[in-house]
Amino acid sequence: MDHAADAHRTDLMTITRYVLNEQSKHPESRGDFTILLSHIVLGCKFVCTAVNKAGLAKLIGLAGETNVQGEEQKKLDVLSNEVFVKALVSSGRTCILVSEEDEEATFVDPALRGKYCVVFDPLDGSSNIDCGVSIGTIFGIYAINDGVDPKIEDVLQPGKNMVAAGYCMYGSSCTLVLSTGKGVNGFTLDPSLGEFILTHPDIKIPKKGKIYSVNEGNAKNWDGPTAKYVEKCKFPQDGSPAKSLRYIGSMVADVHRTLLYGGIFLYPADKKSPNGKLRVLYEVFPMSYLMEQAGGQAFTGKQRALDLVPTKIHERSPIFLGSYDDVEEIKALYAAEGQK
Q1: What digits encode the pLDDT tens for the residues 117-144?
Q2: Are the C-beta atoms of 56 and 150 separated by less than 8 Å?
Q3: How far apart are CA 165 and CA 161, in angstroms?
Q4: b (16+ CB within 10 A) / e for 94-124
Q5: In the structure, what pLDDT confidence band is assigned to residue 69 with cuts at 50, 70 and 90?
Q6: Which one has a higher pLDDT value, 73 or 34?
Q7: Cα 266 from chain centre
């Protein structure tokens, strides 16, 4: 046995250790936020295991109509939702939960109430499960004043008021990317330890990228600025090389690549979806928060994404996010359109 190597493995920056270190910088902290995050991490580990088994489920009889106990089998997105709702409620630190899977917000029982509101998409890109494409969980956290009865308005806040946001991607490895308002860090699940280890400290998105990411199948319905921007990516007039197109169709995977490699991710409004397709609270806001924390930008076609004030919990918005200079270009095209 290589004892030296094993000793080195114990000196790892786990996500728990990282969050506790952050907590120690705030002497007034009671540890509520740390407890909440540990419950989110547990939910991510659970879903990661379920996703990894999904392909085998049919083969080994886990996805039949009913199992041997006569319990009906659940689809992964429904299962993931239940896992996160239970994990968040049992933390005793949440008061309102908004999930992509539930039409109404969940108000936590007063006996288990805390001061945090969590908005989340338990399994984003779940239509990609059967073909093995990366999918993920997206979450954002708001804090409300202690001792105040929670109201739905407490989650209908602009994204800039979030205290933390992140996503967990279930792909070739399980990666959790988190920001608590002081930069962005990436953690990878070590299956042999069952721990998330800090593998991507202080992620910074390149100022300009070489990749654009958009569903070009919608091109005939785009507005002028989006069409012009994509044309410019493919046929640059200034002698620079054309950008590469990369589009997975799973927001977590596309944003993860954009964050690490730079470039721009676009989901514009179009004639078919005049308000865009992605949901503000648990897709647009958390991803925009991470992008800004990593030195990038996020824009809706009208304003900074994090300044948007939602009026409904499942509201949608167009979104352009990624490298600072690339988003500046699309902003300039929208500004020019507005001056016509």
Answers
A1: 999 999 998 888 878 899 999 999 999 8
A2: no
A3: 11
A4: bbbbbbbbeeebbebeeeebbbbbbbbbbbb
A5: very low
A6: 34
A7: 15
Structure tokens at 307: 């300044």
Closest residue by Cα to residue 264 from 320, 318, 319, 306 = 320
CA 232 to each of CA 33, 261, 299: distance values in angstroms, whole numbers, following the listed order: 44, 20, 18
Which helix H or strand E contains 36, and what residues bound it? helix 32-57
Distance CA 283, CA 53 (A): 25
Strands (E), 130-267: 135-143, 164-170, 174-179, 185-190, 195-200, 211-213, 244-245, 264-267
Q: What does DSSP assign to residue 127? A: G
Which of these ranges, 24-28, 194-198, 204-208, 264-268, has the smallest mean pLDDT?
24-28
CA separation for the pair 186, 140 (Å, rounded): 16
Tell me the DSSP string of 246-272: ---S-HHHHHHHHHHH--EEEE--BSS
Rounded CA separation 41/58 (Å):
27
Whether the CA torsion 53, 57, 63, 66 is positive or negative: it is negative
Q: Which two tokens mark 146?
A: 């202690």
**Chain center to CA of 130:** 21
Q: Is the distance from CB of 128 to CB of 112 less than 8 angstroms?
A: no
